Amino acid sequence: MKRRAIVWFRQDLRLHDNEAVSTALRMAEEVIPVYVFDERVFSGQTRFGFPKTGRFRARFIIESIADLRENLRQLGSDLLIRVGKPECLVSELARDLKASWVLCNRERTHEEVFVQDALEQKLWSSGVELLYTRGKMLYHTQDLPVPVHHTPDIFTQFRKDNELITPVREPLPTPAALAPLPQYIERGDLPVITQFGHADTETTSSAVLPFKGGESEALRRLRYYLWDKDLAATYKETRNCLTGGDYSTKFSPWLSQGCLSPKLVYHELKRYERERVSNESTYWIFFELLWRDYFRLMGKKYGNKIFLKGGTQGKPLKHLKNNRDSFQAWAEGRTGVPFIDANMRELNQTGWMSNRGRQNVASFLVKDLKVNWQMGAEYFESMLLDYDPCSNWGNWNYVAGVGSDPREDRYFNILTQAKNYDPRGEFVRVWCEELARVPAEKIHRPDLLTELERQEFGVNGYPKALVRIEKWVS
Ligand SMILES: Cc1cc2nc3c(=O)[nH]c(=O)nc-3n(C[C@H](O)[C@H](O)[C@H](O)COP(=O)(O)OP(=O)(O)OC[C@H]3O[C@@H](n4cnc5c(N)ncnc54)[C@H](O)[C@@H]3O)c2cc1C
Fold first, then answer.
1. According to the CATH classification, is domain 324-472 in 3.30.70.2750?
2. Which CATH number is associated with domain 136-169+214-303?
3. Predicted pLDDT at 434
4. In the structure, what pLDDT confidence band is assigned to residue 463 with cuts at 50, 70 and 90?
C-alpha cells in the first residue's frame, strides 16, 4: 500500500519554501493537501465582541485558498477544503484515508497551540503521527546564538547579536509535480464570504492597494517592488508616507498568511543588492523583517503574557479602563483629531493602516484616551488584513509600555506627527470627507476654525475633539 501523508495548511498558504510539503514528498508516495476554515476563527468573536476575522482578511484568505488550490491543480494534485474544527476534520480524514502522518507548521500562540494539541491527541488514538514543520521566520531557532528563552528583551540587542552572523537559510523549491488525489475523496467547495456573516462588498478605490490574497499575487508584488519598479532602493525615504501603493513593501498581508516566505524575500533582497543597488534602504527592509522575527521570539519566550494587560513586563496599568464610549469614538474614527480619524477610517474601509498610522492611533488610545490597550489590540485583530498574533500583540505591548521598549513612557505628539507626515493634509482629506475643503494650515486644527469657516468649508458634521488639541502645541 502507498504511504500517505496529509499536509494541513495553516498560515503557510504557499508552495514555495514550504517545509511541510517538501518533507511530506520525501516521506510518502501520496500527499493529501487540506485546508480547514476554522469556524471559531471565521465566525467567532473576540473577548470584547468583535468578529474574530473581519471581512477584509476573510476575503483575503478565501482568495489565498482559491489560489493555493489552483496552484496545486497545476502540479497535478488538488486541495481538500473543509469548514469546521480542524482537529476533528483533519483527524477524521487521516483515519478514513489511512494516512501515516499529518504534517503542519507549528504555531506558538495559545489558540493555535490548542488546536494543534487537540489534533495530536485525536491522531494518537488512531496511530497517526503529527509532524511539525517550520516556515514563519527568517531564522531557524536552532541557528540562533542563544536558546529562545535567552532572546534579549531589547530589539537592538537581538538585532546586533544576529544580523551579521545568523544565516538565513535558502528557501525550499516549489515541487515540480504532485501525485493526483484519489477520485473518491470529496474535494469540498470554497466558501463564500457571506457564509462567515460578512457582506460581499467591493473595497473603496481609495485603498492603497487592492490586496488580493494568494501566493501568485504575493510573488507578483515581490517582483514589482524589487525588480519592476526598483522601489527597494528608496524604501527608507518613502516608508513613512501615507498615501499610494508604493511607499512601503506592503508584503505584510501575504507574509502573515504565509503566501510569501520571509526567507524568499531576504534572498531576493540579497540578489537585488548584488545585481542593482545595496544601500541603507535595502538594509532597512531586512531590519524591519528582523522586527517580525523578534516579536515571534517574544511570543515564544513569554507565551500568553503578550495577551495580558500587564504585557511581558507584568505592569499593573490600573489607570487604563475599558471605556466603551472613548473606545467606540476611536474605533469609528470620530475622535475629532483628524490624523487619528483618517487612519481609523482607512482601517475600517480597507483593512489597512500604515505603520506610522498604527503607532499614532495606538499611542492615542492608550496615552491620551487612557483606554485599555487590549481593546485596541483586539480591534486590530479583527480588522487588519495582515493580522499576525505575535506582531500585533507584540507591537501593542510595545506602544502601551508593557513590552520591552527601552524608552520609558514613549509618547506620540499627534499634532507634531500629523504635521510632519501629512503636512498638507492630503491623507486626512482622503478619509475625512468633512474636512476636504479645509485649507492645509488648519486641516489638523479643526478646533481653530471659526463658526463662519466651519460653515464655509462644510465641516459641521465633523465631531468636536475628545481631547484638547492645543495640549500638543509646544
Ligand atoms: C499597534 C501595531 C500593530 C501592528 N500589527 C501588526 C500585525 O498584526 N501584523 C503585521 O504584520 N504587522 C503589524 N504591525 C507592524 C507594521 O505596522 C506592519 O508590519 C507594516 O506596517 C506592514 O506594512 P509593510 O508590509 O508595507 O511593511 P514594510 O515597512 O515594508 O516592512 C517590511 C516587512 O517587515 C515587517 N515589519 C515591519 N515593521 C514591523 C513591526 N513593527 N513589527 C513586526 N513586523 C514588522 C512586516 O512583515 C513588513 O511586511 C503592527 C504595528 C503596530 C504599531
1. no
2. 1.25.40.80
3. 96
4. very high
